[in-house]
Amino acid sequence: MRRFAFLAVFAALAGAAASAQAADTYKFNLHNKSSEYVINGFRTFEGGAWSKNWIDFKLKPGESAEMDWGSDEGNCVVPFKVDWVGYESEKFSVDWCKVKNVYMKDQGFSFD
Domain tally for the chain? Predict the structure, then answer.
């Protein structure tokens, strides 16, 4: 009986740990810190091709959006590009395993 109780507790703890781990995906906030430019696209480069646009909205100067890879697997360093209304896309690369915030600026970007 004691062994069964131990196994039940162990199974419950293992399930909770797996659920917590599954919920821990690469999430970050995309901030538009530009003075006047509007972001209308965000794409990542994986498997030799650019992804579909992650966003279906326009991110105006001063606005932010929560982004989520929906996974915690794969390479940490993945190129990305940002589409600006009326301007060409800009391509960048960053270590997504270390990123919590991406700040798009008039020129370039920063992250923390």
Answer: 1
> Is 28 within 8 Å of 99 (Cβ atoms)?
yes
The verdict on residue 4 lying in a domain is: no
Q: How far apart are CA 23 and CA 10, in angstroms?
A: 20
Residue-wise pLDDT tens digits, 52-63 = 999 999 999 999
- CATH number assigned to the domain comprising residue 43: 2.60.40
What is the pTM assigned to this prediction?
A: 0.76
pLDDT digits (tens, 9 = 90+) for 15-44: 443 333 344 688 999 999 999 999 999 999
For residue 111, the cross-strand partners are 102
d(CA 56, CA 93): 22
